[in-house]
Specification:
Number of domains: 1
Order of helices and strands: EHEEEEHEHEEEEEH
Strand order of the largest sheet: 1-3-2-6-7-10-11
Number of strands: 11
Structural class: alpha+beta
Radius of gyration: 16 Å
Shape: globular
Largest sheet: 7 strands, mixed, barrel
Number of helices: 4
CATH architecture: 3-Layer(aba) Sandwich
Bound molecules: zinc ion
CATH superfamily: Cytidine Deaminase, domain 2
């Protein structure tokens, strides 16, 4: 399974995760899906998410209301959700799903996890082993991983974001040139 992130979705995930760092964000993913590809067009943050440092709980009734609103007003579908993991004390954030993440994972949907940590040196955006997208923004290290649940089994999906790899790399080249 491949999970494509559009420019809007990629920026949405970054802004949403960085805004609340070191707390954790939660939101829904809008887009469309085919049997082996999911296209994420938008990442929409939930303002009502009761953000704690370790876990994010949301009001599930409200979530259903949002899904119905999306279905009746846009051509996109709710294809899954996302949340961030933040560095906690000395423990660095990872993109691994917690037990609670697994419990709340709905069948047939995609779950994106954005891990945010402090970092000293900027790092170009690239794909790392297992299909994770990794890079940095303004002193924060970001890793974006995706999972997909089918037949009651949660598997890792490959994150694909031409925008992140191409455009961000060019930006960093320009930046490097301008400081030399
Ligand atoms: Zn989690």
């Amino acid at each position: 399974m491949e999970v494509y992130l559009s420019e809007n979705a990629f920026i949405g995930l970054l802004v949403s995760a960085l805004e609340v760092y070191r707390r954790e964000c939660f939101g829904i993913l809008l887009g469309h899906s085919t049997p082996d590809r999911v296209f994420v067009e938008f990442a929409v943050p939930y303002q009502s998410a009761n953000r704690k440092y370790r876990e994010v709980h949301i009001d599930w009734k409200r979530s259903q209301r949002v899904e119905e609103a999306v279905r009746s007003t846009t051509r996109w579908e709710c294809i899954g959700d996302y949340h961030s993991h933040s560095k906690f004390g000395l423990r660095r954030a990872t993109t691994q799903l917690s037990n609670e993440d697994k419990q709340h994972f709905s069948e047939g949907t995609v779950g994106v996890v954005v891990a945010v940590n402090d970092i000293r040196k900027p790092r170009p955006w690239s794909y790392v082993k297992g299909g994770t997208l990794s890079g940095s923004v303004n002193g924060y290290s970001i890793r974006i991983a995706a999972y997909y649940k089918s037949n009651d089994h949660i598997a890792r999906a490959h994150v694909v974001s031409p925008y992140a790899i191409g455009f961000m790399e060019k930006r960093q080249d320009l930046f490097r040139r301008s400081i030399q």
